[in-house]
Amino acid sequence: MIHLPGVPAPLGRVIEILSSLPGVGPKTAMRLSLNLLSRPASDATQLAEALTVLHEQVGFCDVCGCFAEQGRCQFCDDTRRDATTVCLVEQPVDVLMMERGHGYRGVYHVLHGRLSPIDGIGPEQLNLVALDQRVVEGVAELIMATSATVDGEATAHYLANRYHEDRDHSEGGQQHKLKVSRIARGVPEGGELEYLDEHTLSRAVDQRISWDRVGL
Ligand SMILES: [Zn+2]
Question: Does residue 213 fall inside a structural domain?
């Protein structure tokens, strides 16, 4: 419990809670708390109510593991999306980042982690049973979009091998070919090459696309 001279305990409590959030230091927490105190009481009540129902009403999609209010998420429910193209990401927040691009029209599967032998996280700890089922039911393409970290890369390799197209994913005699791909990790829009790390740059070169496909 933080003790701040001259600060009433209830205010100190709010400052303490807010300063425990990522990216919020004690000064920002103090400013936010004082701002809440200066507003009408109804604003604080609204915030408290929104936080109260957050865990009650937001869970994970039964199919893909994205955020969902109930049962299935908006992506799995969207019939305009290509349900046979599945993008694999580590966390639900990665889906939100992908969606900011507005270009992807397939669906997702959230692993809820990545392989990390040091932390004792193996395939059993990832959301793979549901993915196995989806693959059997008919997925045309799996796109690896795990993080560009050592563990993220290892996870992508593991998954690519697990769902390799030569494996028999058939069910009830129906065979289908499964394509496995990976997002290119390139130069960010507007990014100066000098600020890129060497791995990003060398990979951007490795995964270059033909100029006539750039669309300039
Ligand atoms: Zn879903």
Answer: no
